[in-house]
Amino acid sequence: MLLWILAILLILLLLYLFLICPALRRPKADHLMGWKYAHRGLHDGNRKVAENSLEAFRRAVDAGYGMELDVQLTKDDQLVVFHDKSLKRVCGVDVDLCTQTYDELRQYFLPGGQQIPLFSEVLELVDGKTPLIVEVKYHDRLIETCKAAHKQLKQYKGSYCVESFHPLAVRYFRKNAPEIVRGQLASGGSNADKHTSSLNHFCMKHLLVNVLGRPHFVAYSVPEDKSLSVTLMRKLFRPYLAGWTIRSQEVMDYAQKEGFQLPIFELFTPEE
Question: Tell me: the pLDDT tens digits for 62-79?
Answer without folding.
Answer: 999 999 999 999 999 999
